[in-house]
Amino acid sequence: MTQLDVFQTVKRVTLEVLPFLPPEEVSIEKSLKDLGANSIDRMEVVTRSMESLGIKVPLVEFGKVKNLEGLVDVLQRFAN
Amino acid sequence: MSQQDRPINRRSTAPIAVTGIGITSSIGMNTGEFSNSLRAGKSGIARWALPAGPLVPVGVGARLPDFSLVTALQQVEGVPEPLRRKIGLCAGRSPLGVQAAVLAALEAWIMSGLDRASLDPQRLGIIVAGSNLNPRYSYGLHEKFQQDPEYLTPRYPLHYMDTDYVGTLSEIFQAQGEGFTVGGASASGNVAIIKACQAIGSDVIDACLVIGALADLSPMELQGFYNIGALGGRNFHDQPDKACRPFDLHHEGFIYGQAGACMLLESTDSAQQRGVPELARVTGGALVLDGNRLSDPNAEGEARAMTQALVRSGLNPSDIDYLNAHGTASPLGDETEIKAVKGVFKEHVPRLWINSTKGLTGHCLTAAGVVEAIAVVIQLQQGFLHPNKNLENPIDSECRFCPPESTLVSIRRAMSNSFGFGGIDTSIILERGGL
Predict the structure, then answer these.
(1) pLDDT of A69 above 70
(2) Do both B309 and B219 map to the same domain?
(3) What are phi and psi of A36, to 5 degrees?
(4) Neighbour-count burial of B415, counting CB atoms closer than 10 A to its CB (0-12 exposed, 13-18 middle, 19+ buried)
(5) Is B154 at the interface with chain A, CB within 8 A?
(6) Which terminus of chain A faces fewer neighbouring Cβ atoms within 10 Å, N or C?
(7) Other CB atoms within 10 Å distance of the CB of residue B138
Protein backbone atom coordinates (compact mmCIF):
# COMPACT_ATOMS: atom_id res chain seq x y z
CA MET A 1 0.00 0.00 0.00
CA THR A 2 1.51 3.32 -1.06
CA GLN A 3 1.68 6.50 0.99
CA LEU A 4 -0.88 8.00 -1.39
CA ASP A 5 -3.34 5.11 -0.84
CA VAL A 6 -3.15 5.57 2.93
CA PHE A 7 -3.38 9.36 2.64
CA GLN A 8 -6.52 9.05 0.55
CA THR A 9 -8.13 6.89 3.25
CA VAL A 10 -7.09 9.36 5.96
CA LYS A 11 -8.41 12.27 3.89
CA ARG A 12 -11.79 10.61 3.31
CA VAL A 13 -12.14 9.79 7.02
CA THR A 14 -11.10 13.33 8.00
CA LEU A 15 -13.82 14.78 5.79
CA GLU A 16 -16.39 12.43 7.38
CA VAL A 17 -15.34 13.58 10.84
CA LEU A 18 -15.16 17.28 9.83
CA PRO A 19 -18.03 17.57 7.33
CA PHE A 20 -17.73 21.35 6.96
CA LEU A 21 -14.08 21.21 5.87
CA PRO A 22 -13.40 22.08 2.19
CA PRO A 23 -11.66 18.95 0.74
CA GLU A 24 -8.87 20.98 -0.88
CA GLU A 25 -7.68 22.09 2.58
CA VAL A 26 -6.71 18.55 3.55
CA SER A 27 -3.05 18.44 2.48
CA ILE A 28 -0.44 16.08 3.85
CA GLU A 29 1.76 18.67 5.54
CA LYS A 30 -1.09 19.96 7.73
CA SER A 31 -2.00 18.67 11.17
CA LEU A 32 -5.52 17.65 12.16
CA LYS A 33 -5.41 20.45 14.72
CA ASP A 34 -4.67 22.95 11.91
CA LEU A 35 -7.79 21.65 10.18
CA GLY A 36 -9.92 22.39 13.23
CA ALA A 37 -10.18 18.89 14.71
CA ASN A 38 -10.60 18.72 18.49
CA SER A 39 -8.97 15.95 20.53
CA ILE A 40 -11.92 13.59 20.10
CA ASP A 41 -12.14 14.30 16.37
CA ARG A 42 -8.43 13.42 16.12
CA MET A 43 -8.93 10.13 17.95
CA GLU A 44 -11.87 9.38 15.71
CA VAL A 45 -9.81 9.96 12.57
CA VAL A 46 -7.26 7.48 13.95
CA THR A 47 -9.75 4.71 14.88
CA ARG A 48 -11.78 5.12 11.68
CA SER A 49 -8.65 5.09 9.52
CA MET A 50 -7.46 1.89 11.23
CA GLU A 51 -10.85 0.32 10.66
CA SER A 52 -10.91 1.36 6.99
CA LEU A 53 -7.46 -0.06 6.45
CA GLY A 54 -8.25 -3.21 8.45
CA ILE A 55 -5.31 -2.75 10.81
CA LYS A 56 -4.82 -2.36 14.55
CA VAL A 57 -2.10 -0.01 15.72
CA PRO A 58 -1.30 0.46 19.43
CA LEU A 59 -2.21 4.05 20.29
CA VAL A 60 1.28 4.75 21.72
CA GLU A 61 2.59 4.60 18.13
CA PHE A 62 0.82 7.88 17.38
CA GLY A 63 2.46 9.73 20.28
CA LYS A 64 5.03 11.56 18.16
CA VAL A 65 2.86 12.22 15.13
CA LYS A 66 2.95 15.92 14.19
CA ASN A 67 0.94 16.12 10.99
CA LEU A 68 -1.04 14.05 8.49
CA GLU A 69 2.18 12.82 6.93
CA GLY A 70 3.33 11.38 10.26
CA LEU A 71 -0.07 9.75 10.76
CA VAL A 72 0.01 8.28 7.27
CA ASP A 73 3.52 6.92 7.83
CA VAL A 74 2.55 5.08 11.03
CA LEU A 75 -0.57 3.63 9.40
CA GLN A 76 1.38 2.64 6.30
CA ARG A 77 3.98 0.81 8.41
CA PHE A 78 1.25 -1.40 9.89
CA ALA A 79 -0.65 -1.78 6.63
CA ASN A 80 2.24 -3.38 4.79
CA MET B 1 -53.62 17.45 59.95
CA SER B 2 -53.59 15.14 56.96
CA GLN B 3 -52.89 16.34 53.45
CA GLN B 4 -56.55 15.96 52.48
CA ASP B 5 -57.72 18.23 55.31
CA ARG B 6 -55.45 21.10 54.44
CA PRO B 7 -57.29 24.16 53.13
CA ILE B 8 -56.67 24.23 49.41
CA ASN B 9 -56.82 27.88 48.57
CA ARG B 10 -53.40 29.29 49.32
CA ARG B 11 -50.89 29.49 46.50
CA SER B 12 -47.44 28.45 47.70
CA THR B 13 -45.44 28.67 44.47
CA ALA B 14 -45.08 31.45 41.93
CA PRO B 15 -46.56 30.69 38.50
CA ILE B 16 -43.93 30.09 35.82
CA ALA B 17 -44.43 31.17 32.20
CA VAL B 18 -44.21 28.87 29.19
CA THR B 19 -42.65 31.03 26.48
CA GLY B 20 -41.72 28.42 23.90
CA ILE B 21 -42.61 24.88 22.84
CA GLY B 22 -41.07 22.54 20.28
CA ILE B 23 -41.59 18.94 19.28
CA THR B 24 -40.51 16.15 16.97
CA SER B 25 -42.90 13.21 17.06
CA SER B 26 -44.64 10.49 15.07
CA ILE B 27 -47.54 12.91 14.44
CA GLY B 28 -45.60 16.04 13.61
CA MET B 29 -42.02 17.27 13.27
CA ASN B 30 -42.97 20.70 14.66
CA THR B 31 -45.73 22.14 16.84
CA GLY B 32 -47.81 23.24 13.83
CA GLU B 33 -48.00 19.71 12.43
CA PHE B 34 -48.44 18.28 15.91
CA SER B 35 -51.41 20.67 16.61
CA ASN B 36 -53.08 19.65 13.35
CA SER B 37 -52.71 15.97 14.24
CA LEU B 38 -54.14 16.51 17.73
CA ARG B 39 -57.10 18.36 16.25
CA ALA B 40 -57.68 15.65 13.62
CA GLY B 41 -57.19 12.86 16.13
CA LYS B 42 -54.47 11.45 13.91
CA SER B 43 -52.58 8.56 15.42
CA GLY B 44 -48.88 7.94 14.78
CA ILE B 45 -49.17 4.31 15.74
CA ALA B 46 -48.45 1.96 12.85
CA ARG B 47 -46.94 -1.39 12.00
CA TRP B 48 -43.31 -1.17 12.89
CA ALA B 49 -40.68 -3.81 12.70
CA LEU B 50 -39.03 -2.57 15.86
CA PRO B 51 -35.26 -1.95 15.96
CA ALA B 52 -33.04 -4.56 14.34
CA GLY B 53 -32.31 -7.59 16.47
CA PRO B 54 -34.33 -10.53 17.68
CA LEU B 55 -37.95 -10.12 16.63
CA VAL B 56 -39.90 -8.54 19.47
CA PRO B 57 -43.41 -10.01 19.81
CA VAL B 58 -45.11 -6.60 19.40
CA GLY B 59 -44.65 -5.01 15.96
CA VAL B 60 -46.66 -1.85 16.58
CA GLY B 61 -45.39 1.55 17.64
CA ALA B 62 -45.41 5.30 17.04
CA ARG B 63 -42.09 5.87 15.36
CA LEU B 64 -40.33 9.16 14.77
CA PRO B 65 -40.02 9.49 10.97
CA ASP B 66 -36.50 9.13 9.57
CA PHE B 67 -34.93 12.55 9.28
CA SER B 68 -31.59 14.15 8.57
CA LEU B 69 -30.71 16.94 10.97
CA VAL B 70 -29.05 19.00 8.25
CA THR B 71 -32.08 18.76 5.93
CA ALA B 72 -34.52 19.36 8.78
CA LEU B 73 -32.56 22.48 9.78
CA GLN B 74 -32.94 23.92 6.31
CA GLN B 75 -36.71 23.73 6.73
CA VAL B 76 -36.74 25.74 9.97
CA GLU B 77 -37.20 29.43 9.28
CA GLY B 78 -35.33 32.14 11.09
CA VAL B 79 -32.22 30.18 12.06
CA PRO B 80 -29.17 32.46 11.84
CA GLU B 81 -26.42 30.91 9.67
CA PRO B 82 -23.79 30.68 12.47
CA LEU B 83 -26.31 28.80 14.66
CA ARG B 84 -27.19 26.46 11.80
CA ARG B 85 -23.51 25.65 11.30
CA LYS B 86 -22.93 25.20 15.01
CA ILE B 87 -25.82 22.75 15.25
CA GLY B 88 -24.38 20.77 12.33
CA LEU B 89 -20.97 20.64 14.01
CA CYS B 90 -22.21 19.84 17.52
CA ALA B 91 -25.02 17.40 16.71
CA GLY B 92 -24.63 16.35 13.08
CA ARG B 93 -23.44 12.90 14.11
CA SER B 94 -25.16 12.63 17.49
CA PRO B 95 -27.49 9.73 18.30
CA LEU B 96 -31.14 10.03 17.21
CA GLY B 97 -32.48 11.24 20.56
CA VAL B 98 -30.04 14.15 20.81
CA GLN B 99 -30.84 15.25 17.26
CA ALA B 100 -34.59 15.10 17.98
CA ALA B 101 -34.03 17.17 21.14
CA VAL B 102 -31.96 19.76 19.27
CA LEU B 103 -34.69 20.25 16.66
CA ALA B 104 -37.39 20.56 19.33
CA ALA B 105 -35.27 22.96 21.38
CA LEU B 106 -34.54 25.08 18.32
CA GLU B 107 -38.28 25.49 17.69
CA ALA B 108 -38.93 26.49 21.31
CA TRP B 109 -35.91 28.81 21.22
CA ILE B 110 -37.14 30.69 18.18
CA MET B 111 -40.76 30.75 19.41
CA SER B 112 -39.68 32.33 22.69
CA GLY B 113 -37.73 35.01 20.85
CA LEU B 114 -34.39 33.97 22.31
CA ASP B 115 -32.79 34.47 18.89
CA ARG B 116 -33.67 38.17 19.21
CA ALA B 117 -34.25 39.13 22.84
CA SER B 118 -31.60 37.12 24.60
CA LEU B 119 -31.06 36.20 28.21
CA ASP B 120 -27.92 36.27 30.33
CA PRO B 121 -26.44 32.81 29.47
CA GLN B 122 -25.61 32.27 33.13
CA ARG B 123 -29.32 32.57 33.98
CA LEU B 124 -30.42 29.98 31.41
CA GLY B 125 -30.57 26.34 32.55
CA ILE B 126 -31.20 22.97 30.94
CA ILE B 127 -33.05 20.06 32.52
CA VAL B 128 -33.26 16.84 30.54
CA ALA B 129 -36.09 14.48 31.43
CA GLY B 130 -35.21 10.81 31.58
CA SER B 131 -32.42 8.39 32.33
CA ASN B 132 -30.95 5.45 30.39
CA LEU B 133 -32.01 7.28 27.25
CA ASN B 134 -29.84 5.60 24.67
CA PRO B 135 -29.84 1.81 25.04
CA ARG B 136 -30.26 1.29 21.28
CA TYR B 137 -26.99 3.16 20.70
CA SER B 138 -25.01 0.84 22.98
CA TYR B 139 -26.88 -2.23 21.73
CA GLY B 140 -26.06 -1.32 18.13
CA LEU B 141 -22.31 -1.14 18.85
CA HIS B 142 -22.17 -4.33 20.84
CA GLU B 143 -21.55 -6.84 18.06
CA LYS B 144 -18.74 -4.80 16.49
CA PHE B 145 -17.22 -4.27 19.92
CA GLN B 146 -17.09 -8.01 20.56
CA GLN B 147 -15.06 -8.44 17.37
CA ASP B 148 -12.83 -5.36 17.30
CA PRO B 149 -12.82 -3.32 20.51
CA GLU B 150 -10.05 -1.15 19.01
CA TYR B 151 -12.49 0.31 16.50
CA LEU B 152 -14.97 1.54 19.09
CA THR B 153 -15.61 5.21 18.39
CA PRO B 154 -13.87 7.51 20.89
CA ARG B 155 -17.17 9.38 21.07
CA TYR B 156 -18.77 6.45 22.86
CA PRO B 157 -18.14 7.75 26.41
CA LEU B 158 -19.79 11.04 25.44
CA HIS B 159 -22.80 9.55 23.70
CA TYR B 160 -23.71 6.68 26.02
CA MET B 161 -24.16 9.10 28.92
CA ASP B 162 -27.46 10.94 29.26
CA THR B 163 -25.48 14.12 29.95
CA ASP B 164 -24.65 14.18 26.22
CA TYR B 165 -27.96 16.04 25.92
CA VAL B 166 -26.93 18.63 28.51
CA GLY B 167 -23.52 19.22 26.96
CA THR B 168 -24.69 19.38 23.36
CA LEU B 169 -27.69 21.63 24.01
CA SER B 170 -25.72 23.95 26.29
CA GLU B 171 -23.02 24.42 23.65
CA ILE B 172 -25.55 25.10 20.90
CA PHE B 173 -27.85 27.42 22.88
CA GLN B 174 -25.19 28.94 25.16
CA ALA B 175 -26.84 27.92 28.43
CA GLN B 176 -24.46 28.37 31.35
CA GLY B 177 -26.78 28.17 34.36
CA GLU B 178 -27.78 24.90 36.06
CA GLY B 179 -27.95 21.83 33.85
CA PHE B 180 -28.59 18.17 34.61
CA THR B 181 -30.73 15.14 33.81
CA VAL B 182 -33.56 13.84 36.00
CA GLY B 183 -34.82 10.27 36.08
CA GLY B 184 -38.42 9.55 36.97
CA ALA B 185 -39.20 6.66 34.60
CA SER B 186 -42.43 7.53 32.73
CA ALA B 187 -42.92 10.52 35.02
CA SER B 188 -39.55 12.03 34.02
CA GLY B 189 -41.10 14.78 31.86
CA ASN B 190 -43.20 16.12 34.72
CA VAL B 191 -40.30 15.72 37.15
CA ALA B 192 -38.18 17.94 34.87
CA ILE B 193 -40.94 20.56 34.59
CA ILE B 194 -41.39 20.58 38.37
CA LYS B 195 -37.62 20.89 38.98
CA ALA B 196 -37.33 23.69 36.41
CA CYS B 197 -40.16 25.61 38.09
CA GLN B 198 -38.42 25.20 41.45
CA ALA B 199 -35.07 26.42 40.06
CA ILE B 200 -36.74 29.44 38.46
CA GLY B 201 -38.98 30.06 41.49
CA SER B 202 -35.98 30.06 43.83
CA ASP B 203 -34.15 32.53 41.56
CA VAL B 204 -31.29 30.18 40.64
CA ILE B 205 -32.05 30.77 36.95
CA ASP B 206 -34.45 32.96 34.95
CA ALA B 207 -35.33 30.42 32.28
CA CYS B 208 -34.87 26.76 31.54
CA LEU B 209 -34.95 24.56 28.47
CA VAL B 210 -36.86 21.50 29.66
CA ILE B 211 -36.15 18.59 27.35
CA GLY B 212 -38.41 15.57 27.06
CA ALA B 213 -35.79 13.13 25.82
CA LEU B 214 -36.67 10.42 23.33
CA ALA B 215 -36.46 6.97 24.88
CA ASP B 216 -34.46 5.14 22.21
CA LEU B 217 -35.18 1.56 23.21
CA SER B 218 -33.35 -1.47 21.92
CA PRO B 219 -35.09 -4.81 21.32
CA MET B 220 -33.97 -5.85 24.80
CA GLU B 221 -35.96 -3.11 26.58
CA LEU B 222 -39.02 -3.82 24.41
CA GLN B 223 -38.84 -7.53 25.15
CA GLY B 224 -38.46 -6.63 28.81
CA PHE B 225 -41.59 -4.46 28.77
CA TYR B 226 -43.38 -7.31 27.01
CA ASN B 227 -42.21 -9.90 29.52
CA ILE B 228 -43.22 -7.75 32.50
CA GLY B 229 -46.70 -7.57 30.95
CA ALA B 230 -46.74 -3.82 30.28
CA LEU B 231 -46.71 -3.75 26.46
CA GLY B 232 -49.95 -3.80 24.47
CA GLY B 233 -50.53 -4.36 20.77
CA ARG B 234 -51.10 -8.12 20.90
CA ASN B 235 -54.78 -8.27 19.89
CA PHE B 236 -54.75 -5.37 17.45
CA HIS B 237 -51.61 -6.30 15.60
CA ASP B 238 -53.35 -6.02 12.24
CA GLN B 239 -55.14 -2.76 13.13
CA PRO B 240 -52.29 -0.76 14.64
CA ASP B 241 -54.26 2.49 14.95
CA LYS B 242 -56.69 0.66 17.23
CA ALA B 243 -53.97 -0.84 19.40
CA CYS B 244 -53.68 1.99 21.93
CA ARG B 245 -57.01 2.26 23.79
CA PRO B 246 -56.75 4.40 26.93
CA PHE B 247 -59.72 3.87 29.26
CA ASP B 248 -61.41 1.41 26.88
CA LEU B 249 -62.57 -2.01 28.03
CA HIS B 250 -60.22 -3.63 25.51
CA HIS B 251 -57.07 -1.76 26.57
CA GLU B 252 -54.17 -4.15 26.92
CA GLY B 253 -51.00 -2.21 27.68
CA PHE B 254 -48.92 0.68 26.40
CA ILE B 255 -47.74 1.18 22.83
CA TYR B 256 -44.19 2.49 22.52
CA GLY B 257 -43.86 5.97 21.01
CA GLN B 258 -40.87 8.13 20.09
CA ALA B 259 -40.72 11.88 20.51
CA GLY B 260 -38.32 14.61 21.46
CA ALA B 261 -39.91 17.65 23.07
CA CYS B 262 -38.87 20.95 24.56
CA MET B 263 -40.65 23.50 26.70
CA LEU B 264 -39.01 26.79 27.56
CA LEU B 265 -40.03 27.80 31.07
CA GLU B 266 -39.29 31.31 32.28
CA SER B 267 -40.06 33.57 35.21
CA THR B 268 -42.97 35.88 34.46
CA ASP B 269 -40.68 38.86 35.21
CA SER B 270 -38.11 37.71 32.67
CA ALA B 271 -40.77 37.10 30.00
CA GLN B 272 -42.16 40.57 30.68
CA GLN B 273 -38.74 42.21 30.51
CA ARG B 274 -37.96 40.50 27.24
CA GLY B 275 -41.41 41.47 25.96
CA VAL B 276 -42.37 37.95 24.87
CA PRO B 277 -45.88 36.54 25.19
CA GLU B 278 -46.73 33.83 27.72
CA LEU B 279 -48.24 30.86 25.93
CA ALA B 280 -49.37 29.44 29.25
CA ARG B 281 -48.39 29.27 32.89
CA VAL B 282 -47.43 26.37 35.11
CA THR B 283 -49.23 27.21 38.34
CA GLY B 284 -47.81 24.33 40.36
CA GLY B 285 -46.86 20.70 40.46
CA ALA B 286 -46.12 17.87 42.81
CA LEU B 287 -43.88 14.82 42.86
CA VAL B 288 -44.53 12.13 45.46
CA LEU B 289 -43.52 8.52 45.98
CA ASP B 290 -45.66 5.48 46.73
CA GLY B 291 -42.82 3.72 48.54
CA ASN B 292 -42.92 0.89 45.99
CA ARG B 293 -40.08 -0.49 43.88
CA LEU B 294 -42.35 -2.35 41.46
CA SER B 295 -44.31 -1.37 38.37
CA ASP B 296 -47.80 -1.40 39.87
CA PRO B 297 -49.69 1.89 40.29
CA ASN B 298 -51.13 3.19 43.53
CA ALA B 299 -54.31 5.28 43.71
CA GLU B 300 -53.45 6.85 47.06
CA GLY B 301 -50.08 8.14 45.77
CA GLU B 302 -51.57 9.39 42.51
CA ALA B 303 -54.31 11.23 44.42
CA ARG B 304 -51.72 12.75 46.74
CA ALA B 305 -49.77 14.13 43.74
CA MET B 306 -52.92 15.66 42.22
CA THR B 307 -54.05 17.14 45.54
CA GLN B 308 -50.64 18.65 46.29
CA ALA B 309 -50.49 20.17 42.80
CA LEU B 310 -53.85 21.83 43.51
CA VAL B 311 -52.74 23.01 46.97
CA ARG B 312 -49.53 24.54 45.64
CA SER B 313 -51.45 26.26 42.85
CA GLY B 314 -53.99 27.63 45.30
CA LEU B 315 -56.78 25.97 43.35
CA ASN B 316 -59.82 23.85 44.10
CA PRO B 317 -60.68 20.72 42.11
CA SER B 318 -63.54 22.59 40.43
CA ASP B 319 -61.03 25.12 39.00
CA ILE B 320 -59.68 22.41 36.69
CA ASP B 321 -61.53 22.10 33.37
CA TYR B 322 -59.50 19.36 31.79
CA LEU B 323 -57.25 16.47 32.77
CA ASN B 324 -54.57 15.21 30.42
CA ALA B 325 -54.39 11.77 31.97
CA HIS B 326 -51.37 9.52 32.28
CA GLY B 327 -53.70 6.97 30.56
CA THR B 328 -51.20 4.53 29.07
CA ALA B 329 -53.96 2.02 28.15
CA SER B 330 -52.64 -0.42 30.70
CA PRO B 331 -55.71 -2.05 32.31
CA LEU B 332 -54.55 -1.72 35.92
CA GLY B 333 -52.99 1.71 35.29
CA ASP B 334 -56.14 3.17 33.73
CA GLU B 335 -58.41 1.80 36.45
CA THR B 336 -56.13 3.04 39.22
CA GLU B 337 -55.90 6.53 37.73
CA ILE B 338 -59.70 6.78 37.40
CA LYS B 339 -60.08 5.71 41.03
CA ALA B 340 -57.57 8.38 42.09
CA VAL B 341 -59.20 11.07 39.91
CA LYS B 342 -62.61 10.32 41.40
CA GLY B 343 -61.16 10.55 44.90
CA VAL B 344 -59.67 14.00 44.20
CA PHE B 345 -62.33 15.57 41.97
CA LYS B 346 -65.41 13.98 43.60
CA GLU B 347 -68.60 15.78 42.48
CA HIS B 348 -66.65 17.73 39.82
CA VAL B 349 -65.84 14.48 37.95
CA PRO B 350 -68.77 14.67 35.48
CA ARG B 351 -67.62 18.17 34.40
CA LEU B 352 -63.90 17.37 34.13
CA TRP B 353 -62.90 16.68 30.53
CA ILE B 354 -60.39 13.81 30.25
CA ASN B 355 -58.24 12.59 27.38
CA SER B 356 -54.96 10.76 26.99
CA THR B 357 -52.52 11.99 24.35
CA LYS B 358 -50.90 8.52 24.33
CA GLY B 359 -53.71 7.25 22.10
CA LEU B 360 -52.20 9.45 19.35
CA THR B 361 -48.46 9.57 20.16
CA GLY B 362 -48.01 6.21 21.85
CA HIS B 363 -46.29 6.22 25.22
CA CYS B 364 -43.21 8.40 24.83
CA LEU B 365 -41.92 7.19 28.23
CA THR B 366 -39.20 9.61 29.39
CA ALA B 367 -40.50 12.35 27.07
CA ALA B 368 -44.20 11.75 27.81
CA GLY B 369 -44.65 14.46 30.46
CA VAL B 370 -43.18 17.18 28.23
CA VAL B 371 -45.01 15.92 25.11
CA GLU B 372 -48.30 16.01 27.00
CA ALA B 373 -47.62 19.40 28.62
CA ILE B 374 -47.11 20.71 25.08
CA ALA B 375 -50.39 19.08 24.00
CA VAL B 376 -52.06 20.85 26.94
CA VAL B 377 -50.58 24.25 26.03
CA ILE B 378 -51.78 23.86 22.42
CA GLN B 379 -55.30 22.87 23.51
CA LEU B 380 -55.48 25.75 26.04
CA GLN B 381 -54.31 28.21 23.41
CA GLN B 382 -56.41 27.00 20.51
CA GLY B 383 -59.60 26.16 22.41
CA PHE B 384 -60.12 22.51 21.56
CA LEU B 385 -59.67 19.10 23.13
CA HIS B 386 -58.30 16.22 21.12
CA PRO B 387 -60.17 12.91 20.96
CA ASN B 388 -59.54 10.15 23.45
CA LYS B 389 -58.65 7.69 20.71
CA ASN B 390 -60.32 4.28 20.45
CA LEU B 391 -62.68 4.77 23.35
CA GLU B 392 -65.57 2.50 22.36
CA ASN B 393 -66.55 1.00 25.72
CA PRO B 394 -65.35 3.31 28.51
CA ILE B 395 -64.26 1.55 31.69
CA ASP B 396 -66.13 4.20 33.66
CA SER B 397 -69.51 5.76 32.98
CA GLU B 398 -69.21 8.81 35.24
CA CYS B 399 -66.04 10.35 33.77
CA ARG B 400 -66.33 12.84 30.91
CA PHE B 401 -63.95 11.33 28.37
CA CYS B 402 -63.35 13.33 25.19
CA PRO B 403 -65.36 11.96 22.24
CA PRO B 404 -63.94 10.50 18.97
CA GLU B 405 -63.99 13.93 17.27
CA SER B 406 -62.19 16.99 18.60
CA THR B 407 -64.28 19.14 20.92
CA LEU B 408 -64.27 22.91 20.51
CA VAL B 409 -64.22 24.16 24.06
CA SER B 410 -62.54 26.98 25.88
CA ILE B 411 -60.33 25.63 28.65
CA ARG B 412 -58.84 27.80 31.38
CA ARG B 413 -56.90 25.33 33.47
CA ALA B 414 -55.66 21.83 32.96
CA MET B 415 -53.94 19.18 35.02
CA SER B 416 -51.47 16.74 33.47
CA ASN B 417 -50.54 13.48 35.20
CA SER B 418 -47.47 11.29 34.73
CA PHE B 419 -46.76 8.18 36.76
CA GLY B 420 -43.64 6.04 36.60
CA PHE B 421 -42.39 2.60 37.60
CA GLY B 422 -40.99 2.66 41.10
CA GLY B 423 -44.02 4.45 42.53
CA ILE B 424 -43.19 7.89 41.12
CA ASP B 425 -46.34 10.02 40.92
CA THR B 426 -46.43 13.51 39.42
CA SER B 427 -49.07 16.03 38.57
CA ILE B 428 -48.75 19.53 37.15
CA ILE B 429 -51.28 22.29 36.50
CA LEU B 430 -51.19 24.67 33.55
CA GLU B 431 -53.36 27.67 32.85
CA ARG B 432 -53.96 29.61 29.67
CA GLY B 433 -51.73 32.64 29.11
CA GLY B 434 -53.32 36.01 29.80
CA LEU B 435 -55.92 34.76 32.31
Answers:
(1) yes
(2) no
(3) 95, 15
(4) buried
(5) yes
(6) C
(7) 17
